[in-house]
């Protein structure tokens, strides 16, 4: 069993609360990504699993065992860091083998060690590099050696702290796919820390989004995208980000609901009963804000970005009291670009307009009372 469970875990450094009352269950074999902005506590959470940070309050279990007071070397997990931390004077072979030589308690024979190194090198495509030193490897290859060093230990779980951040964009994309494959091949729990939502969305079986030391939401990439628990998650996930417009809930005579912001009407079926007049933030994904002659949202186009597969229209939408918000709409790449300054109308699918409480940022639902 390699599930990992946080129960009410808090970590304080003096006055700083790095992780606050964290409840999170990472299932056996999951690829869990801890995601959030710099300083949100994700690395601290990972380091607590590794045993590199003590726990101030709460309980952390690996499998059925509470590990609060278990030494790192007795937790049977392997950590891969951003700075690969390879031994420069050792060959790739020796680097990969190093944890097996260090762990005298397991006393593997030389034959067994060689077999494990060969297996890891095979999985990672490093067979041809085993006799090189790290200085003679590319960044991507060094990163794979760091992974190899973790794989030979056959740990219950792999912990990874931003392992791709030193790679260039193309190699990062390739390595993302390799890590997903590795996770499938090893059938082991992965916990992966990043601030890059694209990494999280492409690799994770579930994403745990943190902010200010607190867990905001844990769910599949699809759940956090389509059903964000609050405004923070809604804005953090998605590129380009979700459009957000401050307004008030209105209920028309025929019972249809929406949000007004100045002269704009944003239809939404997600207003809870009895919420008329409530201050809310309407959230609309760029792909759900569609140029349409009958649309109820009017804006002035300020720019167009043509990306080949789609076109992004940037517009200013006035929302009263001489305020305006900039919105991004994803449009068909074919057709003519609107002129800058042109007035455009946008339509939305009322089911897809998310509503968030203006004060708490919590997601509001039709079924809320
Ligand atoms: P980053 O992506 O920048 O690494 P993070 O989300 O991983 O950020 P943490 O490194 O977990 O964030 O830090 C969370 C908070 O705890 C931050 O405010 C940080 O300054 C603080 N912190 C982390 N380690 C220590 C420490 N040893 N002593 C004091 N404060 C610390």
Reconstruct the topology from this structure.
Elements lengths: L3 E10 L2 E11 L4 E5 L6 H9 L6 E6 L2 E2 L10 E4 L11 H11 L7 H15 L14 H13 L5 E5 L7 H18 L2 E6 L2 H7 L2 E6 L2 E6 L1 H6 L4 H6 L6 E9 L5 E5 L2 E4 L11 E6 L4 E3 L5 E10 L4 E8 L5 E8 L11 E6 L5 E4 L5 E2 L5
Parallel strand pairs: 3-8, 3-9, 6-7, 7-8
Antiparallel strand pairs: 1-2, 1-4, 4-5, 9-10, 11-12, 11-14, 12-13, 14-20, 15-19, 16-17, 16-19, 17-18, 20-21
Helix pairs in contact: 2-3, 2-4, 3-4
The structure holds adenosine-5'-triphosphate.
Order of helices and strands: EEEHEEEHHHEHEHEEHHEEEEEEEEEEE
Number of discrete helical segments = 8
Percentage of β-strand residues = 25-35%
Share in helix: 10-25%
Distance between the termini: 41 Å
Report the structural category: alpha+beta
Query: Globular, elongated, flat, extended or rod-shaped: what is the shape?
Result: elongated
Q: Please give the order of strands in the largest beta sheet.
A: 6-7-8-3-9-10
Q: What this model shows, in words?
A:
This protein has eight helices and 21 strands. By secondary structure, it is an alpha+beta fold. α2 crosses α3 (110-124) and α3 (110-124) packs across α4 (139-151). Adenosine-5'-triphosphate (ATP) binds at residues 13, 16, 18, 36, 38-44, 195. Adenosine-5'-triphosphate is lined by residues 13, 16, 18, 36, 38-44, 195.
